[in-house]
Amino acid sequence: MKKIEELLSGLPAADGRRLYIWGAGNTAMLFREGLARVPQLKIEAYVDNDPAKQNKTIGDTPIISADKMIKDEKTLVLICTGQPAAFTAITKQLGDMGVDSANLEAVIFGLFREDVIKAYELLDDEESKRVYLTMLENRINCTFPEDDIIIPDQYYCLPKFRAAAAGETFIDCGAYVGDSVENYIWAHDGVFKKIIAFEPDKKNYTAMGFRMERLKKEWGISDDAVELYDYAVGDEDNTLYVESYDNNNGLGSKMSATKSSGSEECRTVTLAGYITDKCFIKADIESYEYKMLKGAEAQIKEHKPIMSICIYHNSVDFFSIPLLVKSLVPEYKLSVRQHTYALSDTVLYCTL
Fold first, then answer.
1. Residue 335 pairs with which residues in a beta bridge?
2. Shared-domain flag, residues 147 and 97
3. Using CA atoms, how far apart are residues 352 and 345, in angstroms rounded to an integer?
4. The domain containing residue 66 runs over which residues?
5. What is the pLDDT of residue 247?
């Protein structure tokens, strides 16, 4: 039996259980996009110890306190956190309450066991398989990875993603304050055709504008070679809301279909009108990567851009994005690399 099959055997199942998700913070907000593609998991409510989150909702699902859960043999609480210390503390609290619990990620990976194996087998090189398997194990157990799989130069670490390309258009989805644009310019020695950058958070977008003015002066870049948009990218043209991640200075701002306190209205577009021949697409858009790909399926099939796509925001993306990309362009070679000492910054690299 392969190691991945051994890892995925015996994972907890949710069949016939009354399900709650424990954790209504940023991780739960990221997982809602993935869970929308998992109708098998019917969630009664989110549970959180923070009174400020209680009596609100995530989508249509209420957030409650622990004392409002039904606590019997049918109840299973799915813990939703990417922090090992928090996972241990929550597991203990639920154990003290006499309530069964499991890691939400482990349940999802067990439910989609065959798809996870298929995604793993699509990877083109042994290092990618080692990284994918290691991060899968870490996600199942809610533990941080060891140093030996972590490498620098996120989005540009592989040779084909650093090659100077005079005719290339770089499309940056989730450009934050322009740091990934600046890294692209450095990695490509300032050689490219055009940069198109999308960032929906207004504060981040303004900061990116200041950075781009500096970069244009430093590198002699013409104004018409750069297009900046304060839009989100998804599967349809729409109007949604952007929410800043509390106490994180604009990092990790995410999209929501519903307005909440502190959120701002935002235009959402597809990449259909932006992809042309010889493109490089980078996407780090807080669980909207799958929708971004769906919104540009025809153009990706036609133009076959190279892509650096984050797959870490929720465990459904971890296997469904590689499967989707390969179904669109069977010729793609898929690689995976890990870029931080956390359950984040796992990137899928797609090349011809």
1. 349
2. no
3. 23
4. 3-111
5. 53
Backbone angles phi, psi at 51, to 5 degrees: -60, -25
- On whether the CB atoms of residues 129 and 120 are closer than 8 A, the answer is yes
Strands annotated E in the chain = 18-22, 43-47, 57-58, 61-64, 75-79, 100-103, 169-173, 194-198, 226-229, 232-233, 238-243, 254-256, 264-269, 279-283, 306-310, 333-338, 346-351
Shared-domain flag, residues 239 and 140: yes
CATH of the domain at 16: 3.40.50.20
- Do 98 and 177 lie in one domain? The reply is no
Report the chain's C-alpha Rg in angstroms.
Answer: 21
* 345 phi-psi bin (left φ>0, alpha ψ -120 to 50, beta other): left
User: Which tokens sit at 338?
Assistant: 């890990």
Domain check: are 239 and 135 in the same one? yes
Using the 3D structure, point to which of 87, 111, 135 is the last residue of a domain.
Answer: 111
Identify whether residues 101 and 220 lie together within a single domain.
Answer: no
Domain termination residue (choose one: 111, 142, 169): 111
Torsional sign, CA 326, 188, 302, 286? positive
Q: How many folded domains does the chain comprise?
A: 2
Low-confidence ranges of the chain (pLDDT < 50): none
> DSSP letter at 256?
E
Task: Strand 226-229: give its sheet, edge to edge.
Answer: 226-229, 194-198, 169-173, 279-283, 306-310, 346-351, 333-338
Strand residue runs (E) in 82-179: 100-103, 169-173
Are residues 63 and 169 part of one domain? no
Q: What DSSP line would sit under 301-317, residue for residue? A: HHH--EEEEE--SSHHH
Can you give the pTM of this predicted structure? 0.95
What is the spatial order of strands in the sheet that 57-58 belongs to?
57-58, 61-64, 43-47, 18-22, 75-79, 100-103
Pair 58, 125 in one domain: no
Cα separation, 185 vs 170, in Å, equals 10
pLDDT for residue 261: 60
Contact 312, 331 (CB under 8 A): no
CA–CA distance, 269 with 199 (Å, rounded to integer): 12
